[in-house]
C-alpha cells in the first residue's frame, strides 16, 4: 500500500514540477523577447503597469495609454510593449504596424477578458477558435447578406419610432440618454436575433434586461477588481451568486424562445421574406444538421451580447457629439429633410441612407473619436514576425482602434475635436486604411458591421428628425472609459426638445 502511495505521489509531484519548469521557461523566453520591444520607463520591475493602473479609473487608464502612445510615436516607435504582472501586452501604434496581425489567418485566438463570459456565450463566434470558428463564420456570414439587412432596417425603424415616443414623454427635461438608447438597441437585437420582442422600452424592469445589465456590470467589475479573482472573496462577496442568477435568467429566456420557435417550425410555421430573423436562419442550418442545439443557443446569446451594447455606445456618443455641435446638427437635419422629407413618421430605407453622405461622415467621425469597441486582443499561438519586430509566442497583442484613431500624426493636432469633414472623400483617400478600424479588420473583423452602421444611422435619423439636442455639460468634460465598450463616464445628460 505504502509503495503504491509513494509512486502515485511521486508521479503527481514530477508532473507538477515538469509543468512549473515549462511555465517558467516559457515565461522567461517571452519576457526576454518582449523586453526588446519599445517600452515606457515608468513600469514596476515585477508588476509592470499594474500599480499605475490600480490608481486609475477606466477613463484614466485610457488617458494614460493615449499619452504614452503619442509620446512613443514622437520618439519614432510604432509598437509598444507593456507588462502587466506576468503578462506582456504588445500594442501596434500605427495602421502599418497593425496590418500584419489583423491580416493573419493563423493568429486569431482571443486573448484575455473572454474567459468570464464563456459560461454565458459558450464558444460562439466571438470566442471560438480554429476549425469551429471557421465553420461558424462561414455558416453565419450569409445571415448578414444585403437582402437580410433590408429586413433588419424595418426592425430598426419600428423600435426607433417607439424610442421617439418614449423620449417625447419627457417634455424636454434633462435626462441621461444612455439607458434609453440601450433599451432601444436591446429591443432591436431581441427582435432581429430571435424574432421576439421583450418591449423593454415600455418595460424597463424586464428580468432579461436587468440580467443583461447586471451581467455586463459583473463582467467589468471582475476584470478590473483583482480581489474577485480569488474564489473565497468572489463567493463571499455575493458576486458568484449574482452571476449564477443572471446566467440562469439569460439562458432560460433564450432557451425558451428557441424552443417556442422550433415548435412553431415543426408545425409548418416558417417565417419568410420580411419576417426573417437570425434565429430562423440558424434553425434552417439546424434542420440541415450543420449546427446542434447548444450551437444555436450560444450563437443567439453571442448576438444578443455583441449586438446591443456596442451599438448603444456608438449612438450614445453620436448624440453627445451632435448635441454639442449645433452646426453639424443643423446640417444633418437639413439633409434629413432633403432626402427623407418632412413627414416625421416616414420609414427610413437603405435607399435613403445611401443618399445621406453627411450622415455617413458624421457617424464615421463619431466612431473615430469614440470607438465603441476601444480595444480587443489576441493571444499569440506562435512567435510572430511583424515587420522588423518579433512578437513572442504567448504574448497578448492588443488591437486598439482608439489608439490609432487618436494618432496626432495621422489626424492632426486637433485629433480630439469632432469634425465630420475628416471623412470627406478627398481627405479619406489620403489615409492608411488601417488607421481607421472601429470594426477591426481582416478575417476576424466585426461580422455585424453593416448591421450596426445601418442601425445606428436609422436611430440617429429618427432622433435628429424629431428633436433638437443640447447639453449643459461641456463637451470635453465627459471622459471616456475603456471597458468592454467605450463608456461615457458622465452618462449622456441632454435636453431633447421636440422640433414639431
Ligand atoms: C458600433 C457597433 C459595433 C462595433 C464598433 C463593433 C466592433 C467589433 C470589433 C472591433 C470586433 C472585433 C473583435 C475582435 O477582433 O476580437 C467585433 C466582432 C464581432 N462583432 Fe461587432 N461591433 C459592433 C456591432 C455589432 C453588432 C450589431 C453585431 C451583431 C449583430 C456584432 C457582432 C460581432 C460578432 C459576432 C463579432 C465576432 C466576430 C468573429 O470573431 O468572427 N457587432 N465587433
UniProtKB/TrEMBL annotation:
Cofactor(s) needed: heme
Keywords assigned: Heme, Iron, Membrane, Metal-binding, Monooxygenase, Oxidoreductase, Transmembrane, Transmembrane helix
PROSITE patterns tied to this protein: CYTOCHROME_P450 (PS00086)
Superkingdom, taxonomy of origin: Eukaryota
GO MF terms held by the record: heme binding; iron ion binding; monooxygenase activity; oxidoreductase activity, acting on paired donors, with incorporation or reduction of molecular oxygen
Residues engaged in binding heme: 446
Keyword Lipid metabolism attributed: no
TM helices/strands, residue ranges: 6-28
Gene3D superfamilies: Cytochrome P450
Alphabetized InterPro entries for the sequence: Cyt_P450, Cyt_P450_CS, Cyt_P450_E_grp-I, Cyt_P450_sf, Cytochrome_P450_Monoox
Entry keyword Metal-binding: yes
Family according to the record: Belongs to the cytochrome P450 family.
Protein name: Cytochrome P450
Source organism of the structure: Mesorhabditis belari
Amino acid at each position: 500500500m505504502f509503495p503504491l502511495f509513494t509512486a502515485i505521489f511521486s508521479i503527481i509531484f514530477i508532473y507538477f514540477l515538469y509543468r512549473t519548469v515549462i511555465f517558467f521557461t516559457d515565461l522567461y523566453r517571452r519576457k526576454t523577447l518582449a523586453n526588446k520591444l519599445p517600452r515606457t520607463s515608468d513600469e514596476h520591475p515585477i508588476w509592470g503597469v499594474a500599480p499605475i493602473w490600480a490608481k486609475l479609473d477606466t477613463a484614466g487608464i485610457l488617458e494614460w495609454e493615449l499619452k504614452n502612445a503619442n509620446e512613443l510615436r514622437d520618439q519614432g516607435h510604432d509598437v509598444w510593449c507593456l507588462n502587466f504582472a506576468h503578462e506582456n501586452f504588445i500594442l501596434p501604434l500605427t495602421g502599418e504596424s497593425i496590418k500584419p496581425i489583423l491580416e493573419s489567418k493563423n493568429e486569431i485566438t482571443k486573448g484575455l477578458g473572454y474567459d468570464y463570459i464563456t459560461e454565458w456565450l459558450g464558444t460562439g463566434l466571438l470566442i471560438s477558435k480554429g476549425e469551429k470558428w471557421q465553420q461558424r463564420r462561414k455558416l453565419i456570414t450569409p445571415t448578414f447578406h444585403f437582402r437580410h439587412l433590408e429586413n433588419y432596417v424595418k426592425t430598426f425603424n419600428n423600435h426607433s419610432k417607439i424610442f421617439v415616443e418614449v423620449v417625447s414623454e419627457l417634455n424636454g427635461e434633462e435626462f441621461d440618454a444612455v439607458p434609453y438608447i440601450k433599451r432601444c438597441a436591446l429591443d432591436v437585437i431581441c427582435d432581429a436575433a430571435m424574432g421576439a420582442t421583450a418591449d423593454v422600452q415600455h418595460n424597463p424592469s424586464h428580468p432579461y434586461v436587468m440580467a443583461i445589465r447586471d451581467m455586463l456590470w459583473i463582467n467589468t467589475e471582475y476584470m478590473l477588481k483583482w480581489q474577485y479573482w480569488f474564489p473565497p472573496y468572489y463567493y463571499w462577496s455575493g458576486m458568484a451568486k449574482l452571476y449564477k442568477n443572471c446566467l440562469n435568467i439569460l439562458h432560460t429566456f433564450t432557451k425558451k424562445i428557441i424552443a417556442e420557435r422550433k415548435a412553431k417550425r415543426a408545425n409548418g410555421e416558417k417565417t419568410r421574406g420580411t419576417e426573417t430573423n437570425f434565429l430562423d436562419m440558424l434553425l434552417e442550418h439546424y434542420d440541415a444538421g450543420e449546427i446542434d442545439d447548444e450551437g444555436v443557443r450560444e450563437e443567439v446569446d453571442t448576438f444578443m451580447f455583441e449586438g446591443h451594447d456596442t451599438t448603444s455606445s456608438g449612438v450614445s456618443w453620436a448624440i453627445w457629439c451632435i448635441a454639442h455641435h449645433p452646426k453639424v446638427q443643423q446640417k444633418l437635419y437639413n439633409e434629413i429633410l432633403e432626402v427623407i422629407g418632412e413627414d416625421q413618421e416616414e420609414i427610413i430605407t437603405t435607399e435613403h441612407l445611401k443618399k445621406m453622405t453627411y450622415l455617413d461622415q458624421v457617424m464615421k467621425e463619431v466612431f473615430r473619436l469614440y470607438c465603441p469597441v476601444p480595444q480587443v486582443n489576441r493571444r499569440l499561438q506562435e512567435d510572430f514576425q511583424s515587420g522588423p519586430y518579433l512578437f513572442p509566442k504567448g504574448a497578448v497583442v492588443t488591437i486598439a482602434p482608439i489608439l490609432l484613431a487618436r494618432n496626432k500624426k495621422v489626424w492632426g493636432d486637433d485629433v480630439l475635436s469632432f469634425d465630420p469633414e475628416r471623412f470627406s472623400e478627398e481627405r479619406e483617400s489620403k489615409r492608411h486604411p488601417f488607421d481607421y478600424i472601429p470594426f477591426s479588420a481582416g478575417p476576424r473583423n466585426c461580422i455585424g458591421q453593416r448591421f450596426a452602421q445601418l442601425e445606428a444611422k436609422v436611430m440617429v435619423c429618427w432622433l435628429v428628425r424629431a428633436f433638437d439636442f443640447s447639453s449643459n455639460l461641456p463637451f470635453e468634460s465627459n471622459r471616456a472609459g475603456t471597458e468592454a465598450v467605450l463608456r461615457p463616464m458622465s452618462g449622456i445628460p441632454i435636453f431633447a426638445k421636440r422640433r414639431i
